[in-house]
Amino acid sequence: xxxxxxxxxxxxxxxxxxxxxxxxxxxxxxxxxxxxxxxxxxxxxxxxxxxxxxxxxxxxxxxxxxxxxxxxxxxxxxxxxxxxxxxxxxxxxxxxxxxxxxxxxxxxxxxxxxxxxxxxxxxxxxxxxxxxxxxxxxxxxxxxxxxxxxxxxxxxxxxxxxxxxxxxxxxxxxxxx
Amino acid sequence: xxxxxxxxxxxxxxxxxxxxxxxxxxxxxxxxxxxxxxxxxxxxxxxxxxxxxxxxxxxxxxxxxxxxxxxxxxxxxxxxxxxxxxxxxxxxxxxxxxxxxxxxxxxxxxxxxxxxxxxxxxxxxxxxxxxxxxxxxxxxxxxxxxxxxxxxxxxxxxxxxxxxxxxxxxxxxxxxx
Amino acid sequence: xxxxxxxxxxxxxxxxxxxxxxxxxxxxxxxxxxxxxxxxxxxxxxxxxxxxxxxxxxxxxxxxxxxxxxxxxxxxxxxxxxxxxxxxxxxxxxxxxxxxxxxxxxxxxxxxxxxxxxxxxxxxxxxxxxxxxxxxxxxxxxxxxxxxxxxxxxxxxxxxxxxxxxxxxxxxxxxxx
Lengths: 177, 177, 177
What we know:
Chains A, B, C: The active site is at residue 52. Chains A, B, C: Pathway: Cofactor biosynthesis; adenosylcobalamin biosynthesis; adenosylcobalamin from cob(II)yrinate a,c-diamide: step 5/7; Cofactor biosynthesis; adenosylcobalamin biosynthesis; adenosylcobalamin from cob(II)yrinate a,c-diamide: step 6/7. Chains A, B, C: Pfam families: CobU. Chains A, B, C: GTP binds at residues 11-18, 36-38, 53-56, 85. Chains A, B, C: Its EC number is 2.7.1.156, 2.7.7.62. Three copies of one chain form a homotrimer. Chain A is α/β, with parallel strands linked by helices. Chain A has a single domain, classed as Rossmann fold (3-Layer(aba) Sandwich). Chain A has helices at residues 17-26, 43-55, 69-75, 87-96, 101-114, 135-154, and strands at 6-11, 32-36, 60-64, 82-85, 119-124, 157-162, 165-171. Chain A has a seven-stranded mixed beta sheet with strand order 3-2-4-5-1-6-7, sandwiched between helices. The longest helix of chain A has 20 residues, at 135-154. The radius of gyration of chain A is 15 Å and the shape is globular. Chains in contact: A-B, A-C, B-C. Chain A binds chain B through residues 8, 10, 12, 125-131, 135, 138, 141-142, 144-146, 148-149, 151-153, 158, 160, 167, 169-170, and chain B through 11-16, 44, 125-130, 132, 137, 140-141, 162-165, 167.
């Protein structure tokens, strides 16, 4: 894996995205940065966050970044591999804060591409069901799809997970291995 | 690409289906037919249609075909490549008009196969979420899935897009290239 | 295909999962066991069950197993290939009966792995839409995703269907063919 590699890990709910992303980072030299975007609004979320945290080894440094992923990435040690989990919650946080989603997405992508160490980003694919009834859900679905497309266009590798199994949709570095 | 090639472009919302389909057609000799099935019922739809239209070059001839795709395809110049965008809206239009969906699907597929120029069809995959609460949405989901299956069985190529990236699910013409 | 092969067939609604799974089993020596998990609560379900049943040849032996898949698998003749259609309904049945979903999943997987004849299991992928509004749907989505992951980890082959077309996500026996 070359230093600046960017990997986007896509998949549905409970598709094993986080675990897969962690395994990619854990093959690199530690310590690793874990950029957590989840905010615990209720008991359901709290339990989910605790479960994810308990699974990770002590070589992970956790940074809470519900909104400022770009700033958090910029402030990391330059050679520290980073995992962002997950973009879909981060986008939700910005949507609820009524921020400009396109500007935030552009700012994030620029920060990811500035890194000299590998970055792995986890995002949900949410556009494969029936059109949602409510307008906010549709707006979110559109923004999430656009963010995934923009990141996928810049990423070195894109994998799509189904039932814990990855399918490689893009790999520009496969020859380096 | 041989003359009569039929390509089905599947994917979720905001997965880059339209853009991918346009790029397939734009490699062929122009002019190209754009068969638009969208009807602007509200401002959200109008904005989306305008955005799609603004992206297309002047070599596209736009035909509005919210219901009669078969007739519109039959009336095109025989050697004009055609893009149908999208089947999911077309099916919705027929569902709301209380037409016989299976008969309409069969009529469409026959017209597609009658073309001597390439046809690229865009359709949404809508069956990968939780079962919808309301019966109409379930009926639509079933009809959309059946239409996609029937077309995929007849198509020369079927691609599934995730985050703007295509995964080839079927390609019977790969040797011709 | 070696005797104990386990195949997991994943896909969305109306993606051709059942037909694909039947075709896998029908290449093996008959008779074949069809383990049906569907319970007809209403006319819509009854019509769907009847349609599936009418499509199957007489070499199929149908076993109704809305809850006890493990016991039904254990009771089959040891050399009889089995098709389980589908796990998503089976999980729904256990959810509605307020059973321990993790315990039931573990019991099922153990029974599948005890078989000396091939087993093909059909399951829906339901996690690729917007987060459902209601908590029960979210709980179900999580349980279904975990079951699919656990089975996929143990299966010899995992295929994901889109529009009737299979994409192989895992195949540990491809060299035996």
